């Protein structure tokens, strides 16, 4: 007997959103972006937007630097490969093979 799941897609979507929310809160606490204070009169959750901005700017700068270094490294590797190919071609051209006379036995 075949059973079908109804609402499976919606449940998966809700679970994914909930998981992302939990991860973001965990990262926020870990990075010091989110703090909770509990007083007898009220409880508050504070988000340090300045710290979030500083950290995201640092991450963006580090990413740009990584990309630039990777591009430079790739360019150097390409140049080295082209130089090696040119040297190999030159050494192959310099080597002469003896001519073989097909009629000689």
TrEMBL record:
Q: Indicate whether Transmembrane helix appears among the record's keywords.
A: yes
Q: Where is this region: Disordered?
A: 70-105
> Would I find Transmembrane among this entry's keywords?
yes
Sorted alphabetically, the keyword list is: Membrane, Transmembrane, Transmembrane helix
Where composition is biased (Acidic residues), the residues are 80-92
- What segments bear the compositional bias annotation Basic and acidic residues? 70-79
Residue ranges annotated as transmembrane are 12-34
This protein is called what? Answer: Uncharacterized protein
Native organism is Blastopirellula marina
């Amino acid at each position: 007997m075949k059973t079908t799941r109804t609402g499976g897609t919606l449940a998966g979507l809700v679970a994914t959103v909930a998981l992302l929310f939990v991860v973001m809160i965990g990262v926020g606490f870990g990075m010091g972006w989110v703090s909770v204070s509990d007083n007898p009169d009220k409880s508050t959750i504070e988000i340090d937007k300045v710290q979030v901005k500083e950290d995201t700017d640092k991450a963006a700068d580090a990413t740009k630097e990584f990309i630039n270094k990777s591009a430079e490294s790739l360019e150097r590797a390409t140049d080295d490969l082209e130089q090696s190919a040119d040297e190999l071609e030159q050494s192959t051209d310099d080597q002469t093979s003896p001519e073989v006379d097909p009629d000689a036995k």
